[in-house]
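WARN retry 2 of 3 for item q-0093 after timeout on previous attempt; input resubmitted unchanged.
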Amino acid sequence: MTAPDSTRLPALAAGAVDRAADERATPGLLDSLRTDAAARVLVLAGDAAPLASPDELQWFAPDAVPEGAEWAFLGRGDDGAPLLAAVFDTRDDEVLATPAGWAGLRAVGGVLRAEDAGAFVEALSLGRWLLDAPFCPACGALTLLGDAGWSRRCPSCGRQHFPRTDPAVIVAITSASDPDILLLGSNVLWGADRFSCFAGFVEAGESLESAVRREVQEESGIEVAVARYRGSQAWPYPRSLMVGFLATAKDDGAAEADGEEIAAVRWFTRDEIGEGLAGESDLVLPGRASIAHRLISDWHAGAA
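OK item q-0093 returned
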C-alpha cells in the first residue's frame, strides 16, 4: 500500500509524539519524571482533556495533579521535555480548573495543533487500557504495571500483557462511471440526515483488502472493483486503528442498505458534499477529528 501525501494525513495521525520507547525500561522512570520540573502532564478525566484555549490543550506540572490517577510515560515533546499522562476513570470537569474547560477527543481532535492531537489520542488509547484491564485475562490475578505504563505482568502466572489495538477498515465509495458522486451510508442509530463512510472490524485471519470487500458488500450491496489505501489513525472508541480506503464500485445500481447496521445508502454529488462540509445544508457529515472526514473532504477536493 502506498502512503498518501503526508500533508493530508488524518487529523489524529499528523502529529505523533516522539514516544521515546527505549526509555520505558529505565527502572523507576515514572517516579523520577513525576518529580521533574520540566515534565508536562496531560490529565484525562474519562475521555476529556483540559483546554488552555479552544484549540490547545492545557498541560500541568506533575505536582499539580491530584491523587488517584493512573500514570504513564507518553514520550518527549518537540523541546525534549518528558510528557506524561495522568488518567482518571470518570468524567469530572472539577479534577482541575482550566482556562477553556474540558472536551472530548471527538470534539476537539480535529482542531488541535499536531503535537497536542497526537498526545491526546495516545494518552486516551493507553489510558483506557490502564483503567479497563488491571487483571490478568488468563488467571484473573491483579497485574503489576511495567515499562512506564506500557505493559502489565501477572505475578501469579507470569504472563505479560500489552495494550490491545483492533484494526478496522473505513471506506468511501466512488462511482463506476461518474467521478462526481460518492456513496455514503446512514447508520440505524443515527438521524436520517447523518451520513458517513462504511466501516467494520477486520476479522481473524483476514487481510485489510478482504475486509474492505466484505464490509462494503455486507453494508451497501456494492462489489468493490478497486480499493486504494488513504491513511490510518488511532480511534480509541474503544481501541481501534482505523485504516482508510477509497474504493470504486463495480455497479452503482447495486447499492442497497443492509437494513441491520445501515438504514440508508445514497449517492451524493460533489456539490452536495461541499455544502455538507461547509454546514450549508441538512446533511450531517463526520467531524474533523475522524478519518471519515478526511476521506470525504479529500475526495471533494480532488485530492483522493
